[in-house]
Amino acid sequence: MTTETTNTEVNETPEVATPVNPLLRTVTVEIPSDVVDTERNRLVQQYAKVARVPGFRKGKVPAGVIRTRFSQDINEEIVRNLIPKHFREETQKQSLAPISQPQVTDLHLHDGEPLKFTAEFEILPEIPTAGYENVKVEHSQVTVADEEIEETVNGLREQRSTYDPIEDRAAENGDFVQISFEGRDKADAEAKPVEVPSIMVELGGTNTVPEFTEHLLGSKAGEEKTFDVTYPAEYGDQRLAGKAVEYHVTVKALKKKVVPELNEEFITELSGEFKTPEELRAKIREGLEHEKKHRAEHEGKDKLVDELVKLNDFPVPQAMIESQIEVRLERGLRALAQQGMRTEDMRKMDFSRLRDGQRDAATREVKASLLLEKIADAEKIEVSEEELNEEIASLARQSQQTPEAVRARLTQDGSLDRIRTRIRNEKTLDLLYSRSA
Questions:
Q1: φ and ψ at 129, to 5 degrees?
Q2: Most C-beta atoms within 10 A of its C-beta, which of 72, 254, 308, 333?
Q3: How far apart are CA 250 and CA 225, in angstroms?
Q4: For residue range 114-139, what is the model confidence (pLDDT) as tens digits?
């Protein structure tokens, strides 16, 4: 007898292990049946006073009918009313401090029985602060070169340039042409054309679209030009990136820019504080030094935070990371809106990929905040009411509201505590930076 053995290859897809979250905690809660029954009876009486049921007068519906007809609504209210209170009591009993919304599962709710449920949530980790007193970062020396001052002076002169009309010749490179135009998207005949009644174009300017320079050279006031511009996909203005636009341009006037001389008249117009070029340059140097010191301090503090995060490794609550990702996304979307991106274009963005791209930075920011809060505790750093009031006053000026209205809004939406924490963390970082030289 011959026995044949067949070898069969089985391709198994390996299971991807889900990372264990060391900050997850679970509690199982049982609410006694008499507590549940008391709440149910209270709700039945409440419903009986207002319920409208065919065949019964208002306020005269029997309790049994209410229990049957509104059983689902009553059960939902029992859950809403009892679970938060008893969840909070159970976590306090176990000395747990949830920092995320509990995820409720295994909910058991039946007449005459205890209400049982399981809740899963995150807690804060143990946050080490090893070596924070010894972190050192370089405090860069700030210098301002004469060339930087001259560049700023020339910028001020450019800002106050005037434009003299040109009437005896055609447009040349370096001239400014005042035009009006209408632009049509060549790929979308239904799109409303863009109309600009007046704009100045510098021929050959670094920020001038080359096609405008090419077609307006040699032009004179009153002439009309029609030409196409194809914008690259990476063009800075998202409204035009990757599009081909037909422009119909009307030349209104030719002008030559006149840059003012650096003299006493010009300097006095800038400010009454100084009159001579030397005084102006001294003021500019002071401003540039302040700006550079601020930038160097900001970069130094960033490096200090990086060192703190490297020194102290600990798990970060996922709920806090997700919240910070949303903060970063909202900030980014506001910036895109300010740059001109349309809401409908934003909706087409891959938000899942964007969130993933923000995760590392958000994790670092949450870690830094938790570390600074812990160090603030160790250093006994607090925020005074005066400091908080100054911040509220600043926000009030920005929003053109009264400080009282701003404080009320911040208190209502829970932002006041976040602002207090931010100020406290900033004070802590200021202290660490002052020690780190």
A1: -135, 40
A2: 254
A3: 6
A4: 999 999 999 999 999 988 999 999 99
